Amino acid sequence: MIGGESVYKLLVPHCDKAYVTFSYTELKADKFFPNLNRNENWFVSAIQPTQIEGRTPFRFVEYTNTKPLPL
């Protein structure tokens, strides 16, 4: 079966950048985007906290991969 999680796991190691949006909500899910904070090849290169009145707070995080794999 092909789904978002399997595609991310396959392709993220080949990326040199990842732009991830974190939302401060809790939703039920059984599949997730890989946690780049737990991977030694990835580091946070920028964070932009965002608050829009009446909306759930979120932040944009830019990650950089120090050792992207070739395609």
Walk me through this protein's architecture:
The chain is mainly β and about 70 residues long. It has one domain: Dihydrofolate Reductase, subunit A (3-Layer(aba) Sandwich), CATH 3.40.430.10. Helix content is about 10%, strand content about 35%. It has 1 helix and 3 strands, in the order H-E-E-E. The chain has a 3-stranded antiparallel sheet, with no helix packed on it. The chain is globular, with a radius of gyration of 14 Å. The protein starts with a helix and ends in a 6-residue tail after the last strand. The model has no long low-confidence stretch (mean pLDDT about 90).
What is the secondary structure topology, with strand pairs?
Layout: H1 4-11, E1 17-23, E2 42-50, E3 58-65
In short:
The chain is mainly β. Helix content is 11%, strand content 34%.
Number of strands: 3
Number of domains: 1
Number of helical runs? 1
N-to-C series of helices and strands: HEEE
Mean pLDDT over the full residue set: 89
Cα gyration radius (Å) = 14 Å
Ends apart, CA distance between termini = 22 Å
Q: What's the story with the biggest beta sheet?
A: 3 strands, antiparallel
